[in-house]
Each structure stands twice: as structure tokens, then as C-alpha cells.
What does this fold into?
Amino acid sequence: MTGDTAIRRTTIAAVAVVAVVAGWVSYRHALHVVSQHGETGWLGRAYPLTIDGLIVAASMVLLTAARQRARAHWLAYFALALGITATIAVNVAAGLAYGPAGAVIAAWPAPALVISFELLMIVVRSLAAAPAAQFASAVPGDAESAARAALTASVAASNPISQRQLIERFGLSRTAERKLRAEVLASANGHST
It folds into this structure.
């Protein structure tokens, strides 16, 4: 396991633990508030899920937009802000019976859940961006380098690109193609040029 992999796995595990604990506490607080205000049974148990579920849904829309390098719809940002506001409000409401300190303590799971989830999204976004960065460095910057890479790969596959194909595809002159071919073939045969 590489250092980067260990860091990613540790981050994901830590964020997951915080998110599960904070989510459970936040759910319990919301369930308490909802049941005090008349919602009972399955509806009372499902209602709190709409609050944190809105945060998750909005975050997924924002993540999808980020992965596609597109601008997210304003509604996703609004939904995220609304979900955060609602989850903080319901947690504070659950702790108010215990005074200001109780309200602050009860409010803690809401930002912990939101922040841990957003940290997880940062890790996911970085994983999505990593392959693109790897390929960007592998793409040749000019026609001759691209021709060299193509010829080297085709020689390695025992099906070398023809002189005509190299000239037409990469805009090389005959002289440049001959020189390139000689260098690539010599290198493939273990000779230095």
C-alpha cells in the first residue's frame, strides 16, 4: 500500500466514523423534536431523514458537477444551505431544555456531520481528479514527441507504423521521419543513438 493510499483510507475511515456518530446523534435529536411536535410512528421516524438527506442529495449534485467540471445549479447550493440550517436548528431545539450550554452541545453533531461529509467529498473529488492529472503528463506536447510515442508503441507491439502513416498523421518531413524511425528502432534493439 502506498503512502497516498494509506492517507486516503485513513481519511475515509475517520470521516466515516465521525459522520456515522454525528448522523446518529443528529437523527436522535431531530426525532425528539419531531415527536414533541406531534409526528409519531413511521412518519415521525422518517421525517428527520429529510433534513440530513437534503444535505447528502445537494452534496451529490455538487460533486457530480465538480467531476464533470461544470457549474452546479443554484438550487444545489440553496438545498445545501437549507439542509445545514435545518439540521443546526433542530439540534439546537433539542438542547434548549438544558439551557445555552445544552443548546451548544446539542448543536455540535450538525456541523460535525456536515464538515465530515464535505471532507469526504474533498477526498472523492481529489480521487476523480487524480487520473486526469496522470494522463495530462503522459500526453506528448508536440508532433514529433507524439510520433515518437506512437512509433515506439507500435514497434513494441510488433506492428510498426509505416513511413507514410507517420508523415501523414504527424506532419513530419521524410527526413524527420527517417531520423525518428532510426532512433526508435535503435532504441528498441538496445542500441543508444
